[in-house]
Design a protein that fits this description.
Layout lengths: L1 E4 L7 H6 L4 E5 L2 H9 L4 E3 L16 E4 L13 H17 L5 H7 L10 H10 L6 E6 L4 H13 L3 E8 L10 E8 L11 E2 L13 E2 L3 H5 L28 H11 L22 H4 L4 E3 L8 E3 L17 E3 L17 E2 L2 H7 L12 H10 L3 H8 L17
Parallel strand pairs: 1-2, 1-4, 2-3, 4-5, 8-9
Antiparallel strand pairs: 5-7, 6-7, 10-11, 10-12, 12-13
Helix pairs in contact: 3-4, 3-6
Family: Belongs to the class I-like SAM-binding methyltransferase superfamily. C5-methyltransferase family.
Enzyme class: transferase
InterPro entries: C5-Methyltransferase (IPR050390), C5_MeTfrase (IPR001525), SAM-dependent_MTases_sf (IPR029063)
């Protein structure tokens, strides 16, 4: 089987299921575990730092780990950078079979920092029986020095190892999400998968076809198809509570703008409460009319529908990822004020992470957003895992709605 530490709602697990691989995930968050159960994924609800490694000895083909990123993320206080020497020390000690976690944890500014050392505890135990065959790990870019330390240890155990930064957009994810990746294998040369997409279309060469263009938000969300009706501008609150998708007054502002023939229809669902299936909007009404803003800070990333999204992150700013009607291409509305920003829905965020449209997210709005923002994009995970599983994926082999 494949062991998935910090398994979350299924960013790694969903593509493993699609690829026909048996996997078990360890996860602590209650709602992520409920999402996994609804998706048919095998899960042990536990604290990864407390769970023993011995049940997996002699049974583990691959080990996956995406430790919680909150201590390191740009969206947080980044105390993981302050704690980084302690985490490096923990990894070095665990690689030698010495458990110094309790002492080092007491010195950490953020107790979550040391979770990035937990995979080494499992790897050391599994290595005593010649396992796993391969390793795949993912985190925010600032964790790359730690992955390089892991790579050195794994090479000393007979693995080939590679670590570096990959952009999820280069693998068909409609999001320019950069992540530090560690890949290691006992049986093959570890190297990053070949990118399938590029910012601009590449012409074919003597060596084969060029890369296709990055997937845009409009393409991923189906906004731009012409075979489905234009939705009305309405929506309700999420099934688990939380604020409704439209801020106060914006519903009327959008309706008035539509009636004036200025802003047309907003790219949103048909009145179902946070529906997982997002109807399409014809190109003349969607493209160039809306952009996605990552948060309310002055330097927030703003991307038009014809581009991939910036990195989606949620949590304490759960609903600050919004559609704005003042597009980055400079197009202006014809009359009256532009509509207020409209919060992105969990369904839209899930699609931009390349989860299926009908993925069974559990919990209220905030809990769903938290799961989505912290997950590995399944399409990126599929490309990282495929070589270890003897699979070859092209640009469209693992579709956005698999």
């Amino acid at each position: 089987m494949v062991l998935d530490l910090f398994a979350g709602p299924g960013g790694w697990s969903h593509p493993l299921k699609v690829l026909g691989v048996r996997e078990v995930g360890l996860e602590w968050d209650e709602w992520a575990c409920k999402t996994r159960a609804a998706a048919g994924l095998v899960t042990v609800r536990t604290d990864v730092a407390m769970y023993p490694a011995w049940p997996f000895l002699g049974k583990t083909q691959g080990l996956i780990a995406s430790p919680p990123c909150q201590a390191w993320s740009m969206a947080g206080k980044r105390l993981g950078l302050v704690d980084q020497p302690l985490v490096h020390q923990a990894v070095a000690d665990l690689a030698e079979g010495h458990d110094t976690r309790e002492r080092l944890l007491a010195a950490c500014r953020d107790p979550r920092s040391l979770l990035a050392a937990e995979p080494m505890r499992y790897l050391h135990a599994l290595n005593t029986v010649g396992e796993p065959e391969w390793v795949a790990m993912e985190e925010v870019p600032d964790v790359l020095p730690l992955w390089r330390q892991y790579a050195v240890v794994l090479r000393s155990w007979g693995f080939s190892a590679w670590s570096g930064i990959l952009n999820a957009a280069d693998f068909g994810v409609p999001q320019t999400r950069r992540r530090a990746i560690l890949l290691a294998s006992r049986t093959r040369t570890a190297e990053p998968p070949a990118p399938t997409h590029a910012k601009s279309v590449e012409p074919p060469t003597l060596f084969g076809p060029g890369r296709v263009q990055w997937v845009s938000m409009a393409e991923a969300l189906g906004w731009g198809a012409t075979d489905r009706p234009v939705p009305t501008v309405c929506a309700g609150g999420g099934p688990g509570g939380g604020p409704e998708p439209f801020p106060s007054g914006s519903r009327k502002a959008l309706a008035d703008a539509r009636d004036r023939g200025t802003w047309k229809s907003h790219p949103r669902g048909t009145g179902q409460k946070d529906s997982a299936h997002v109807p399409a909007v014809p190109p003349s009404e969607a493209r160039g009319a809306w952009s996605l803003r990552s948060n309310n800070q002055a330097n927030a990333t703003v991307r038009s529908l014809d581009e991939p999204a910036g990195t989606l992150f949620f949590g304490h700013r759960a609903n600050e990822c919004v559609w704005v009607a003042d597009p980055v291409n400079g197009q202006q509305h014809e009359a009256g004020p532009a509509p207020e920003p409209i919060r992105i829905t969990a369904a839209e965020a899930g699609l931009l992470q390349t989860f299926p449209a009908d993925y069974p997210w559990q919990g209220n709005k905030g809990q769903r957003f938290s799961q989505i923002g912290n997950a590995v994009p399944p399409r990126l995970a599929a490309h990282l895992l495929a070589p270890h599983l003897g699979k070859t994926l092209g640009p469209d082999d693992f579709t956005l709605a698999a």
